[in-house]
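Interim report, section 4.2 (structural modelling).
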Amino acid sequence: MTEPILSLRGVNKSFGPVHVLKDVNLDVHPGQVTALVGDNGAGKSTLIKCIAGIYTPDHGEFKFDGKVVNITGPRDATALGIEIVYQDLALCDNLDIVHNMFLGREVKKGPVLDESAMESLARKTLDSLSVRTVKSIRQTVASLSGGQRQTVAIAKAVLWNSKVVILDEPTAALGVAQTEQVLNLVRRLADNGLGVILISHNINDVFEVADNIAALYLGTMAAQVAKNEVIPRQVIELITTGVSAGVEKAGVK
Amino acid sequence: MSTPTAATEVTETSLKSAAHDYWSKVKAGDIGALPAVLGLLVLCIVFGSMSSVFLTPGNFANLLTQAASVIVIAMGLIFVLLLGEIDLSAGYASGVCGAVLVILITDHGQPWYIALAASIAVGMAMGFGLGTLVARLGIPSFVVTLAAFLGFQGILLILAGEGGTIRVEDETVLAIQNSNLSPALSWAFYIAASVFYVLLGLSRINARRKAGLKAELFKLWLIKTISLVGVSGLAVWALNLERSNNRELVSLKGIPYVVPVILFLLVIGTFVLGRTAFGRHIYAVGGNAEAARRAGINVKNIRIAAFVICSALSAIAGLLFASRQNSISPTTGGSSTLLYAVGAAVIGGTSLFGGKGKMRDAILGGLVVAVIDNGMGLLGYAAGIKFIVTGAVLLVSAGVDAVSRRGSAV
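Predicted structure of the assembly:
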């Protein structure tokens, strides 16, 4: 097995008296999709916000690429190559695909935007993800379907040679065909060598695309197991009760 | 940078598919400049056929100088409108800045450039104040600038003195709205501007082709460019005709100085909005402020900057007012000025909902507003009717904006 690209050990986070994350461990391997599952309030969002630098954990160790790192803000996470795709996408409807992908990180020639370079790079990124559903990358995001928007948001995240991409329920609002498209894209991200964290409530999606599954239960990591070692019923048990017969408790190993 | 896949993208689209692309853009809520251009054309034909004076060179020059200040205020407003905000105080801001300019020249004997720099600085300070209140305190821009509308009116009244006017006699200030380039210079300016425009378009198409990207259809570009260069050539020719009623006494011909001033502002504004990261961020904040914030854009600073630019352009409009009226009075920049400027921007195609608009909208819309005002005046309609018609045109434009926006919602 490869060394994890991102490794969390003993991460704790409290908001006042509420202890949201309790000694959470998580490993993300390059080339693999790690599904992060858990019921509402289990701490999934808090955990990914700690990884993305939006929250600073109270204590705990972050290892990135084998080295201990200190993430104190979103810029630290971005600099390491950690990108997050939010559930509500955060795209500007009035801008075209290229503009959105480079928003806030425009390529410039002197003071002037280098549109040609940006368009070529955007096209190359979409090609590398085998995205063929968008007709022109100069159309505004307003004219795209939900699945295409998700595609643009994901392509934006991988544009910057990112190493870890976190996807927050990317299929939550999509129809059947579009969900399939996006899951294929998620798979391709991992096949391209990225470490992918996929947050999902949909056990079918998780089993279709994930390599291993990390289940949070009331702020503790119930288990992180390889997908082929468990069946959906066990994962649901982990989500709802925190234990499942035949699944080793995380951190025991 | 070209990749094999990108290279296959380079396909020349036909005029038909270009028209199809335009139509899908319209359906997506982006109407472009066509309605304003057509409206302008129709208005000119209607007024030209009804009034013998409307299509004379003298009236044409008059129209341009009438429209100038509203156009410049509208240019500033577009920066604010792009964010989905509004600046109701821009009209009186131009009055206050004009008063500062005139007082420094007339009462304090300062040269015009120092006075202009000072009045622009005052404008920027006012814009900074407005922007800070909107961005940092989170007061709706409607309320902040409504308060400023009254406040600036008061400042102007105090500066001008009750019922008083301050005259300006500086030759440079007066020349901007009252004098013209000589016919030879007018043609030289026209040729230089046309060459600049053509080269700019060619270099853009060329750069995209070189990078292996889909370029604008050359035929379409040629049609657009030839018609624009042709129409402006016609305008220069008309302006170069003698338009003085008494040509032994005084000769009046050539492009009014204010035209190059406005074209200069158009080029700068278009460059900033279209070619710089700052401009891109203005569109982004107007489109989705939260997305812009997550992309690392300092949304508050962008908002403040837009208000600063708006008020700075109002200061330049103040100069145009002073030049045209030879003075500043307590009503300078008041009455319908601000609403005409907002109307100009919206009629030109700028959205009141933010995120959509271009610098040229100010000029197209400003001309539409000025043509209605001027044409109806020539036909002898009372001011009341003019206001009603202009208000109706603004309402229709805002309605088109709202409906086209609904069409774009996914």
